[in-house]
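Possible regression after last week's pipeline update?

I re-ran a chain I had predicted before the update to compare outputs. Posting the input and the new output here so someone can diff against the archived version. Not blocking, just want to make sure nothing changed silently.
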Amino acid sequence: MKAKLLSIIFFSLIATGCSTTGTNPQDPYEGFNRKVWEFNKGVDKALLKPVAKGYKAVTPDLLEKGVSNFFSNLGEIPTIINDILQFKIGKAFKDTGRFLINTTLGFGGLADQATDMGIEHQPEDFGQTLATWGVGDGSYLMLPFLGPSTTRDLVGQGVDSFVIYNLYEELENDRQTEIGLRGLDLIQTRAGLLALEDQLNSAPDDYTLIREVYLQRRQFLIHDGNPPIEDEECEFEEDCDDF
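New output (post-update):
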């Protein structure tokens, strides 16, 4: 679902012609962020992309899907915690049921039986929780190695990472196994993005495209798929309510 959403946003932004000039008020550190973006692209080209392509080439689709499902199932735990923190109690019960179904009937999360039953994955993170508590986006940031974020989401990522870190420790106390799990998660995530590279490469300014995709997706998630529509043309019109 995430890949499909990103593809839709990619095509819509390219079709409208992403602006490559001017400044974005959410991106006051654009000069620095662009340098970090170039650094991240260099690291990706030299290391992550070749490893991800090799992983995808040698890993059967069924096994690759199982690995993706496993890490997605682990991600249900911070989602459930954030459901509760956002007072989405009904969703917390649904996501708990999803986690239990996939952990049992899905062989430890390797199979996504819950989705087959119509219980879709709807991620929640602490950045979204902060947004529901009234914390603003803050400034857009491009983080070394980690990619796009905002000052609010950076705090959220720290909290969620702490939860995931403890999950890995509960799964296996052996440090090498823990590092292996984290590395496999990273490679699997990167491999899942390979299909989107054509859209990215066709953009007139890949930095601007990534920024707009990230900020739009965050609004999509924060508002549970129904972000508010701002109609600037109607802002001062008396008849706006008719539309």
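Follow-up from reviewer: compared with the archived run. The CA atoms of residues 83 and 194 lie 31 Å apart. Marking as no regression found.
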